[in-house]
Design goal:
10 helices, 33% helix, 326 residues, Ribosomal Protein S5, domain 2
Amino acid sequence: MEEIRLNAHAKLNLSLEVVGRRADGYHNIVSLMQGIDLCDTLTLKKCPQNATKYNLPHCTIDGLAVYLCTDVSTIPTDMNNLAFKGIAALLTAAKDKAPCYTEFIKEAGCLVVEIEKKLPVSAGIAGGSGNAAASMLGLNLLMGYPFSLRELMDIGTVVGADVPFSLFMNASRNRAVLCGLEGIEEASDAAWIGGIGDEVKAAESVPRCVILANPGISVSTAEAYKAIDEIGYAESEVKGTLFVNDLEKYTLANYPEASELKGFMEDNLDADEILMSGSGPTMAAYYTNEEKAADDAAAFTEQAAGRSGWSVWLSKTGITHEEALM
């Protein structure tokens, strides 16, 4: 296969409890994560002929020239790009599978990664991690599936904390294309996450209509987790409660744009729950009633048009049992 096209879905945290700081400085969490139908689209192409014709940003990764083609200017074009990081991690791991690695490098010539960006950046919905996951899933296919899903997830831990789940969830949502991936039968749209994001256990999906709103700012995840050491960790002895987010208190207190947005949503939307996702600033309003969600989204979109930086999307999170079998 010379080319692969995958959807890179973002995720939401339907719960996020920070349960302690580890000796290495990272934090252990308990979180229910699940995919949403909004996504970027990634295409990976092997280009053995006339590779130098591309006037595109690129990085050389383990001897392979990887070019980036994108329609936006808000994502990094160097090794800070998570799609590039995912490719680098996979190629490094593939060196231990010498025939597969050497044959691919020789055959590929160069690799072109096209990203059609539809998701906001630094928004707490793991859009970048989804790009990393899609690039790793796609490259693994182009190399002839040297790694199983769980092996990819282990490799993904060095790329980012959300990448193991993003691999798990995006394998599920791209199941028809990735049918040859070993372990894909385990993949699920939802999972309980533990550790620093490296413990992923499939969970029953919680299907909801959801209105996502972003105030047009970025939030530092590192700063949010650093602040939680002072704020304090989840006190409940029973972990795994839905619709709680321990990072929300910090973000709302330190980013007035996020606080204003959530207050507006609480005052104007008839949602079942309103919760920040991840470290924010994206807010998610959850609905079991699809008609009510559509009506609120139409009114909210019109209201948000008069607010600088605000963006609103009507989406769905979670997959029904019937959809999971498709």
